[in-house]
Amino acid sequence: MLIHAVYFWLKPGLAAGEVARFVRGLRSLAAIGSVQRAYVGTPAATVERGVVDASFSYALTVFFADVAAHDAYQVDPLHARFLAECSTLWREVRVYDAVGDDHIERLGE
Question: I want to staple 34 with a disulfide (CB 3.0 to 4.6 A). Which of 6, 69, 86, 96 is the partner?
């Protein structure tokens, strides 16, 4: 499994319609065939701690079967369209890719 976590810092002062276009673009990425699961979110209202970075605007987390599935996603036309239509809306983006186990059992199960 490959976990693709992408954090976006949107440009300040975007109109509501621009933010909505960005969110629609993020959600459209789930339609790419190699995507197993995808989640879009904003910073959680958790207790402030020094190790937590809640400065981002939106997060996208995508799960793939493997690196090949991730690589197919990167060249998919829907991904290219998202970049073409939305890349002017953010000031910074950071990507964290990790490989991991498919499932970790809860303690006691």
Answer: 69
Alpha helix positions (H), 29-93: 67-74, 77-86
Q: Do 54 and 68 form a contact (C-beta atoms < 8 A)?
A: no
Does 103 reside within a domain? no
Rounded to whole angstroms, the Cα distance separating 42 from 69 reads 25
Per-residue pLDDT of the chain (109 residues; tens, 9 = 90+): 999 999 999 999 999 999 999 999 999 999 999 999 999 999 999 998 999 899 999 999 999 999 999 999 999 999 999 999 999 999 999 999 999 876 666 666 5
CA–CA gap between residue 6 and residue 101 (Å, rounded): 19
The encoded tokens of residue 27 equal 């959600």
Q: How many domains does the chain have?
A: 1
